[in-house]
Amino acid sequence: MTLKTAQQYEDSLRKLKFQVYLQGEKVANPVDHPIIRPSMHSVKLTYELALDPEYEDLMTATSHLTGKKINRFCHLHQSTEDLVKKVKMQRMLGQRTAACFQRCVGMDAINAVDSVTFEMDEKLGTHYHERFNQFLLKMQEEDWTVDGAMTDPKGDRGLAPHQQADPDLFVRVVEKRQDGIVVCGAKCHQTGALNSHWILIMPTLSMGEKDADYAVSFVAPADAAGIVYIYGRQSCDTRKLEGSSIDVGNKQFGGHEALMVFDHVFIPWENVFMCGEYEFSGALVERFAGYHRQSYGGCKVGVGDVLIGATALAADYNGAHKASHVKDKLIEMVHLNETLYACGIACSAEGYKTASGNYIIDLMLANVCKQNVTRFPYEIARLAQDIAGGLMVTMPSEKDLHNLEIGKYVEKYFRGVNTVPTEHRMRILRLIENLTLGTAAVGYLTESMHGAGSPQAQRIVISRQANLEQKKSLARRIAGIPAK
Ligand code: SF4
Ligand code: FE
């Protein structure tokens, strides 16, 4: 069963015994919780579309391990064409969900862990790559959603992990046994944690010798004993408890993040992919981040497509669509959005084969992609709010629209173009609110800023890859200055 149906996916999640807290209370059934469920719908769509012939080419791939058809989210990229298809798949899913569909972090993590464990084994004679392949085989066979987890709490940013007042501020090995390791610590902002079957943990930064206990990578079942999830709040999240399909903006889909705590979690050796090899932690961070920076050139573009469409509809409904400045602003939004896509495609097309055989993106272009993502969605959102008008945040609720006494006033005074029902105008303005200020703004804006590393992290990679000396020699030659 290499491709689960959407229903089988949902049923498989129900079997997991998550320890999860939301707003101070333990949640017995996360799958049906109204705040969590929209995020499950987004992941569920990645199963549904994999079985839809129309999307087969983007959503599925051929396993290099078994030759079977698998979900692309479980695949190791075997060519630059695979890398390009990944970005196209993400744009399409962003268009369909207008949310973070969460499953990419696992795909990016397996691709990074594959090449790093291979190189580690080559150099050190360890056996991590074989173990990783065993896990990958099961992941592909079972069509698991795997949550790649990198970001530690980090405490005082001026101190290394071993210098922190609290030693658990980075995930670490607290005990090594004959049968495995015991880990403590936490991972923050964990995208899609409660919609995942397994988690794949990686170190968050390049570790030094004194931080060898923190150079640890492993997989664990998402509901393993000792893992506790504390669900993250999102702006306007409690609207999902009200049962209104207008006020939530996006009536079906969402994303989520959670704090993932490891309170003495036992990991058998067969699930450990790095344990103390600190000199390889930097490569793992750089490759995972590189893949995820590529990802944003797809998913954020797809969400951007929805926002641009919503803005154009808002202009239509307001009767402002013929104004030249409105047309020009929509063109600007498209230009910015397609520039992000161009970066996502470019870093994929310029990818190359790693020593282990899978393909990696061009790091420079992936980092340029993500650096642009830290800016352009904010400008796109600003223009969307400009065109939408203030009503998107001052409008009454769905309950007012349907109130027997005052509904007629809402209907009358919030109508724009007379041919368009007031309810349609309200729906589209709420969608713009959702994407730029509500629950989806977590994924579309703040995550664009900080997800896959904050802006400065990309500038560091860009500066490392910039090769200014080569550029200077180009200038010298053109200007007629002798080479040094
Ligand atoms: Fe995928 Fe984008 Fe969400 Fe990351 S932010 S998991 S790339 S949808
Ligand atoms: Fe992300």
From TrEMBL:
Question: What Pfam family is a match, any one?
Answer: HpaB
InterPro entries in the cross-refs: Acyl-CoA_Oxase/DH_mid-dom_sf, AcylCo_DH-like_C, AcylCoA_DH/oxidase_NM_dom_sf, HpaB/PvcC/4-BUDH, HpaB/PvcC/4-BUDH_C, HpaB/PvcC/4-BUDH_N
At the top level, the lineage of the source is Bacteria
Q: Which UniProt keywords apply?
A: FAD, Flavoprotein, Oxidoreductase
Query: GO terms for molecular function, please?
Result: oxidoreductase activity, acting on the CH-CH group of donors
Q: Where along this sequence does the record place binding of FAD?
A: T191
Per UniProt, residues of the HpaB/PvcC/4-BUDH N-terminal domain are 5-274
> Does ATP-binding count among this protein's keywords?
no
Gene3D superfamilies of this UniProt entry? 4-hydroxybutyryl-coa dehydratase, domain 1, Butyryl-CoA Dehydrogenase, subunit A, domain 2, Butyryl-CoA Dehydrogenase, subunit A, domain 3
Q: Where is the HpaB/PvcC/4-BUDH C-terminal domain?
A: 282-480
Write the protein's name.
4-hydroxybutyryl-CoA dehydratase
Q: Which organism is it from?
A: Acetonema longum DSM 6540
